[in-house]
Amino acid sequence: MDDVNIEAIADVLALVISLIALTVSAYLAARQTKTAAAGYALPVVLEVFDQFRTPEFFTARQYVYHRLNVEFDPPVALVDLPVDVQTTVRLVAGRYDDLGKLVAHGIIDEDLIIGSNGTATRKVWAAVKPFVLLDRRENNATTWCYLEDLARRVERRPPRDVYDKLRLDYTRQQ
Question: Structure pTM?
Fold first, then answer.
């Protein structure tokens, strides 16, 4: 081999090594950014999850699940509900709407929310949907659109799919 071929091979080899180093650097930078974002989101996630454990929230959610549609049949727009009922419904649906915002904007991983709150999200949306749709129609509002989006995500990808992906070891109902 002559010196020109050796120089050309060395140039190509240097270029390949540079491209590999650039690719690895880009991958590591993206991974570090994702890790930093997850670290930033952790306090938010923990605070939100704590809010779902309060006795006040639990009682309000039970009302939304079991009594809202019984007490107001046919449904009315949210703004037409009595103030105490509005407060209860807003406490519950508003929190799930907030979860939807965090998922839609990529702040919290969708799997985390679907796995931990997917079933409840669907139940809350089913309970408040008639009231919300009336509110949107009568007031030209976008009330709880993030809650609706999150409920649709859960319909497309149920919590069990998340559990299976994570290979969770739990007793399944037969």
Answer: 0.77
